[in-house]
Amino acid sequence: xxxxxxxxxxxxxxxxxxxxxxxxxxxxxxxxxxxxxxxxxxxxxxxxxxxxxxxxxxxxxx
Length: 62
What we know:
Blueprint: E1 3-17, E2 20-30, E3 37-38
Antiparallel strand pairs: 1-2, 2-3
């Protein structure tokens, strides 16, 4: 496996919008190159459990 998503519980809920607090965050880990690439922390939009269909690493899709 070269890339995977890690979901983890936050120590304290993150205030995202007016009435939305999130308790989980996600990061993408990429082991496919010479160096490990770790994404910034991200959160799904208003839904915690979603599938990721596509992720961009700065390359154009053909």
